[in-house]
Amino acid sequence: MLELINIDVELEGDNGWDKVLNDINLSLERNKIYVMTGPNGGGKSSIAKTIMGIHKPSRGKILIDGIDITDMSISERARRGIGYAFQTPARFKGLKVKDLLNLAAGEREIDHCEILYNVGLCAQDYLDREINSTFSGGELKRIEIASLLARQIKVALFDEPEAGIDLWSFQRLTETFINLHQKSDTTLVIISHQERILRLADVVIMVENGRISEITNKDKILEEISQLDTGCEHRDNCGKGVMEYADCIR
Ligand SMILES: Nc1ncnc2c1ncn2[C@@H]1O[C@H](COP(=O)(O)OP(=O)(O)OP(=O)(O)O)[C@@H](O)[C@H]1O
Ligand SMILES: [Mg+2]
User: Fold this and answer.
1) Which ligand 1 atom minimizes the distance to the CA of 160?
2) Residue 25 Cα to ligand 1 middle (Å)
3) Domains of the chain
4) Structure pTM?
5) Residues with CB under 6 A from ligand 1
6) Which atom in ligand 1 lies closest to the alpha carbon of residue 38?
7) 43 alpha carbon – ligand 1 mean position (Å)
8) How far is ligand 2, taken at its centre, from the CA of residue 80, in Å?
9) What is the DSSP letter of 162?
């Protein structure tokens, strides 16, 4: 349904151009949950931004239902059903939460209360509130996720939805992903470092050093996590206070 073929992406950093993605090949099917994970700086957000059209590849092609969208704009891709909830959301200044959800929904009838409930927000407190600098990071993040849920969408890209979200809302969000998966045809791509999100995955995509290092199933990754030795082999000797221990593992 969504295919990335031999994608390279180069971005201009402080010291010239960096190749941040290297020969990315992915084939995503309808109604599956993909969890993308891997070390910080590995290229996960860059892959999501390339699918959304925020980054333009220097090589390769992106197809949706067989149609080449490589040169299409962000808004054209949005019309074709691709949506991206940013790792760090922007502030849509001046808009009320209700207006943002209506804009996202377009012609579609939506239940505002249900959507906000699904991201752990109380509609009464938020629907008529204007989005401005008084919103906390976690509130903004949840409103951005809500605006993606309001859309009829083919491919939903959630970039670290857990970041800044309290435990209670996170539990609700996890259930929301399961519901979305069960009730729609949407392909979910969730970028996450959370074990609870990994457990939702049909397929786990490991991204490291700008490459896909592994495409696997959750059982293998969860088993690897359970065997991780997060400590340090000199732990018994470094003994004394937390600071020394932190120095030791560094
Ligand atoms: N606009 C940019 N210009 C230049 N380099 C960039 C830009 N955005 C990201 N990079 C670099 O691309 C690499 C991949 O970044 P990316 O944000 O995709 O990683 P990530 O896997 O999402 O990491 P994290 O888990 O920390 O969110 C990093 O080395 C980063 O410094
Ligand atoms: Mg990222």
Assistant:
1) 27
2) 18
3) 2-216 (3.40.50.300)
4) 0.87
5) 11-13, 18, 20, 40-46, 87, 207
6) 21
7) 6
8) 24
9) T
Atom of ligand 1 nearest to the CA of 47: 18
Query: What tens-digit pLDDT sequence spans the chain (250 residues)?
Result: 999 999 999 998 888 889 999 999 999 999 999 999 999 999 999 999 999 999 999 999 999 999 999 999 998 998 899 998 887 767 667 789 999 899 888 888 999 999 999 898 988 899 999 988 888 888 988 998 898 899 889 999 999 999 888 888 888 889 999 988 998 899 999 999 999 999 999 999 999 999 999 999 988 888 887 777 666 555 555 544 444 434 444 3
Residue located nearest, by CA, to atom 1 of ligand 1:
11
